[in-house]
Design goal:
By secondary structure, the chain is of the alpha/beta class. The protein folds into 3 domains: 133 residues, Immunoglobulin-like (Sandwich); 34 residues; 180 residues, HAD superfamily/HAD-like (Rossmann fold), CATH 3.40.50. It is built from 9 helices and 18 strands.
Length: 366
């Protein structure tokens, strides 16, 4: 087994290490496991976040007051259980230098410590035999999976007496096949990201609302063999409610790719103004899965058309279909979309208003 560190604290001294405590909250995000043909090894990313609930009531009060003023609300309007549930992950004490130990079947191994923001990202490199053996002894599904999908759960070791069960999950994908790159906000979830006040209200004050018909469409694509990767400019602090939204509205389970949020950039929840960071995330997925074909689904509210067009020009063998949900009154054949996709064949891209305008099965060209 090989552990590759990426962004984690490397070579910590014994004194610097900090053990996981029962008071710590741990979240592990689902990742993509891919097989490296040259090395003959499975690459399994591990991405986790360790933190403790914020005990400083003054800090919480300041954050609540800031959001209240952005929303133009009276103080009582934000003192709801839903608001508190959505806000809590933005007000935590991140736990640096925490050492994570994992167990896969009979093998136990240790990762480096978390960074200053409480996150860790490392890649395990394991032989096929070990992965296959673990698949026979570990849970292999995440929610509404279908026959043939392979999810590997790796146990996270916790302190003695801690009865929680936490797994780090990877979706094991074959070299070939079809993956769907899906935006979240205004693509599968109604958010109104073009309006900051509406965005904040939809995020903190209201139950998440699914775009009608998108879950059913994605389920049909999943039945046809597609894997799903939810790539969003929303921050990791919203992962738990977004994962619950995906599962609760019966969207296919998938990997999540989000961004980091810091209060000093708190004027917006979506600081990737030109979409360049989102594009780099998708390019990394392409690089790790060079033989797979991709269907890219987004909306016209921000930069998805331009991002997907740039990717199609750079990776023409991988991007096989682009679907843009038109919002804010934009036409599926608007001047912007015509200009953005100029030179592409008509069957490569499509703007749509309703999901039933899209193919009920995966494009035959894939």
């Amino acid at each position: 087994m090989i552990i590759e560190s990426r962004g984690a604290v490397a070579q910590m001294s014994p004194r610097a290490k900090r053990e996981i405590h029962a008071e710590d909250s741990l979240v592990f995000f689902p990742t993509i496991g891919h097989f490296d043909r040259e090395a003959g090894l499975w690459r399994l990313p591990i991405h986790g976040w360790i933190f403790r609930p914020e005990a400083d009531s003054l800090r919480r009060a300041a954050a609540v007051d800031l959001l209240r003023r952005w929303l133009g609300l009276e103080r009582a309007a934000v003192e709801t259980s839903l608001f508190s549930e959505r806000l809590w992950a933005f007000l935590v004490n991140n736990q640096p230098r925490k050492v994570v130990r994992l167990r896969l079947g009979p093998q136990r191994f240790e990762l480096s410590g978390t960074t200053s923001n409480g996150h860790l990202f490392e890649v395990l490199s394991l032989p096929s035999a070990q992965v296959e053996a673990a698949l026979r002894t570990q849970p292999t599904g995440r929610g509404a999976t279908i026959p043939g999908e392979r999810w590997l759960g790796i146990d996270v070791e916790l302190p003695d007496g801690d009865s929680r069960r936490i797994d780090a999950w990877s979706h094991l994908l074959s070299d070939e096949g079809v993956s769907v790159i899906s935006d979240i906000d205004d693509t599968i979830k109604i958010t109104h990201v073009h309006d900051r006040s509406a965005l904040l209200r939809q995020t903190f004050l209201r139950e998440f609302e699914a775009v009608p018909g998108m879950a059913e469409l994605y389920a049909r694509w999943q039945q046809a063999g597609a894997a799903f990767h939810y790539v969003s400019r929303s921050p990791w602090q919203l992962y738990v409610p977004l994962a619950e939204f995906v599962a609760g509205h019966k969207f296919p389970p998938g990997t999540f790719h989000m961004r980091h949020f810091r209060w000093k950039n708190a004027s917006t929840l979506r600081s990737d103004r030109d979409g360049s960071k989102k594009q780099r995330v998708i390019e990394e997925i392409f690089a790790n899965l060079p033989r797979r074909k991709f269907v890219c689904v987004g909306d016209s509210g921000e930069h998805d058309p331009e991002i997907y067009a740039a990717l199609a020009r750079r990776y023409p063998e991988q991007v096989r279909a682009i679907y843009i949900r038109c919002v804010n009154g934009e036409s599926p054949r608007s001047e912007r979309l015509q200009r953005t996709f100029a030179g592409f064949p008509d069957d490569l891209w499509r703007g749509f208003l309703e999901p039933d305008e899209l193919p009920p099965s995966l494009p035959a060209s894939i």
